[in-house]
Amino acid sequence: MRSVPPAFPPSRYHVAVKADRTKWDARYRAGSRPHDGPPSGLLRRWLPKAPAPRALDVATGLGRNALHLARAGYQVDAVDISPTALREAARRARREGLRGIRWIAADLDRWRPARGRYDVVVNAFYLNRRLFPALRAAVRPGGILIFETHLVADEADGPAGPKYRLRPGELRRVLRGWNVLYTKDGLCRAGRRTLALGRIVARRPAAARTRRRR
Predict the structure, then answer these.
(1) Residue 10: inside a domain, yes or no?
(2) Is residue 144 part of a domain?
(3) pTM
(4) CATH number of the domain enclosing 69
(5) pLDDT, tens digit, for every residue of 18-36?
(6) pLDDT tens digits, 119-139
(7) Which of 91, 110, 147, 187 sits at 20 to 30 Å (Cα–Cα) from 7?
């Protein structure tokens, strides 16, 4: 009689990932469109000053920023936990005839980008502090990181709790040593909502040139 391998219960991590993916897939299937619409104003403003050709869009959702990057000629890696959102984003890209976007379904608690691969890294409305070192490392010397998400503030809409909100000045501290091109923490209007946002655009210092030996 052939033995049957024992069944091991899934780890807490895999259960959490499945639950998180299921939650976001259900939201998208139900018609929820968090942060959908035009691309980030911060991205639109600063992309013309950024190097090319590779970009990373973190927590892409329905792909508004990834599509904008592709329109500008970038080769884009667009990452999100929800396959449902990525399918819709890919459909939008096909409808526009956009090429060069690689849609990646992955859990950003574990997935890490390649070091020094990207000229532009965009992180909009997603906060995972454990990802900070990997995002810094993913930017090529001379490349830029564009980051914006909710800021701690009592009078603003958005997620509850400090886990999902930046502290004032936190992005400057995370990117200490980089050339900060723009930064602003504070309240802003988004339609009928008042949001508190932390924003930064920073350039990774270019690699130091080694002196020739005489």
Answers:
(1) no
(2) yes
(3) 0.82
(4) 3.40.50.150
(5) 666 666 567 767 766 666 7
(6) 999 999 999 999 999 999 999
(7) 110
